[in-house]
C-alpha cells in the first residue's frame, strides 16, 4: 500500500472515531460539564505523555500561551454544548445541527479576518438554513437539543477560525495541548463555582471511566495526532471532503447502538440530506473558486 492510500485509510478511521464521540456522549451517564472536564484532562495528559516520549519541545511565548489558553475556553463551550445537546435530544439530531458549522464559519471567518463574504458562501448557507428549518419543523420535541447543537456549531466555527490563524505560526499538536489545558482550567473554575467538583470529585462507575478513557485518548488525543499527521501528504480538499463524513459515520453508529431511539421522521432526513449535501458541496465550490 502506497503512502497516499495508507493515509487515506488512516484519515477515514480517524473521522470514524470522531463520529463515535456522539455515541460515547450518550453512553456516559454523567452531565455534559463534568464529562468534558474529564475528557480534556485525560486528553491533555495523553498528549503530554506523547510529547515526553517523543522528546518534543513544547515551549511557546507568553503571547502564544495567552492566545491558546483563551481559545481553550471556546473549545470547552463547544464540547459542553455538544454533549448537552446529545443528552436532551439524540445523537443524530446533534450531529446534523453541528454540521451547520460550515454556515457559521462562512459568516465568522470573513468578519474575524476582515474579508468580504462570498456569494457562494451565502448560497451554501441558505441551503443549510433550509435544512435546519426542516429539522425544527418536524422534530419540535428536540428543540432544546437543536438549539444547543447549533450553539456548539457556532463555538466550533469560532475556535476553528481562530486556529486557522494561529496554526500559521505554531504546530497544531502544541496548539491543541495548550487549548486543552486552557479548557480544563476554565471548566475547573466553573465546577468550583457551582460546587460540582467538590461534591462528586472522581467518584464514577467503572463503566463511565472506561468510556471516558476512550473519549479522552482514542477519540481526542490519538485521533487528533493521526489526523494532523496525514495532512502532510493529503490535499486540503481531500481532507475536507473526508472530514465531512463525520456526521454520516456518527449517525450510522448511533443507529447501530441505540436503534429505535435514533429513528426520526421523514422531515428530519430531508433536512439532514440538505445540510449534508451542502457541506459536501462547500469544499468543491471552494476548490473551483480558488482555481479561477
Query: Per the principal axes of the C-alpha atoms, what is the gross shape?
Result: globular
Poorly predicted sequence stretches spanning 5 or more consecutive residues:
none
What is the chain-wise order of helices and strands? HHHHHHHHHHHHH
What structural class do helix, strand and pairing data support?
mainly alpha
The count of domains is: 1
Radius of gyration: 19 Å
- What is the count of helical runs? 13
In whole angstroms, how far apart are the ends? 34 Å
Amount of helix: over 70%
Query: Could you tell me the number of beta strands?
Result: 0
User: How does the major sheet shape up?
Assistant: none
What is the mean pLDDT?
87
Sheet-strand content, in percent, reads under 5%
Pfam families: EamA
GO cellular component, one term: membrane
InterPro entries: EamA_dom, EmrE-like
Keywords: Membrane, Transmembrane, Transmembrane helix
What does this structure look like?
Keywords: Membrane, Transmembrane, Transmembrane helix. It holds the Pfam family EamA. InterPro entries: EamA_dom, EmrE-like. It is a single chain. The chain is mostly helical. The protein has one domain. It is 82% helix and 0% strand. The protein is built from 13 helices and no strands. Helix 3 crosses helix 4 and helix 4 packs antiparallel against helix 12. The two termini are 34 Å apart.
Key terms for this structure?
globular; 82% helix; 292 residues; EamA_dom; mainly alpha; 13 helices; EmrE-like; membrane
Blueprint (SSEs and pairs):
Blueprint: H1 3-27, H2 32-54, H3 62-88, H4 91-98, H5 101-113, H6 119-138, H7 143-166, H8 172-194, H9 196-200, H10 206-230, H11 236-243, H12 246-258, H13 266-291
Helix pairs in contact: 1-4, 1-10, 1-12, 2-3, 2-8, 2-10, 3-4, 3-7, 3-8, 4-7, 4-12, 5-6, 5-7, 6-13
